[in-house]
Amino acid sequence: MKEVQNNLTQDLIRASAGYARAGLALLHITEGFVSNPQVAIGNLAIAIELLLKAFIAKQSLLLLFKNLPLELRCAIAAPKAMPESFRKTPYEIDLKASAYKSLELDEAITSFGLFFPAMKKRLASHLRFLSRHRNTCVHAALPDFREYEMERTAFLFLTLVEHLKEKEPELLNPFDLGEDKLNKQFLERFDEERLKRVHSKIEAAREKAKKLTEKLSLSSDDWNWYPVACPVCGSDGILTGETEPEKYDNGKGGFEVTTILFFTGETFKCEQCGLTLSDFDELKIAGIDPDVDRSNEAIRWLEEQYQDEEDNIKGFVRKLSGIAKGKSDVSGNLT
To answer: Which of 291, 286, 293 lies closest to 270 in space, CA to CA?
Structure first.
């Protein structure tokens, strides 16, 4: 099974590189201008999906494929414990022939984020764009894609490659994109243009802010956005993102959930001065901290998230309800 795993991983890597070369060629040959960016985005989107799946396959085929037969799962998890009578060849043939359903793109992104949460946080808005448009881009005609969408998809792919080269160098041994110099120049140019873009947005917002006579104040009980002060006009703007508690495997068949609750921002918009920021890096450049501590709302979050779960969840929520708000280091077990 190990040989099948290695071969499948390398096949995914080679396929990813092939699609990537096609997409990046459109980016480089035309010096960033493509009359229809959809072709480049489609190729790069497939390349990213295959790259993520290659990484997951290298960790374990059990993570990549869904609903595998029990016998195959046992053979993958504990090959040395299988009896001599076990016939693995038919299963190996099916694996090579992609007879089993693998993760969808969203599931692959989620799995990748479990291994590299900091990288997923940085790339969250780009991954969300990819998830939203991958299928449509590959299977339909969309003439309204802009050049920036192509560039952000190329940035996402090349950033993932750089990250995996550092963390999983063996994975990318057969990975050949060619044009390394052009790829590096593109990433440098993308970073420079992002910096210029943010400064331009800030200057435009400052001009509009000069005409403002009052500041806007907002409040939110939504877990997908949070009000933060605009770095330009001081009004409350909308920081969109995700709220998640700190939790980890306790090694006893359950997991620990603490009252530490963080909101991670992805985009920002101020209705007063018009400042808009599109991703994690733009937030950092503009001086907005993407991480917001919402631990004082942990009890409400747990009640809402687990309201349909079993009584042990409700008991845990009741337990937390008696904890002082300042004690965010208290945890309990969910099994």
So the answer is: 286
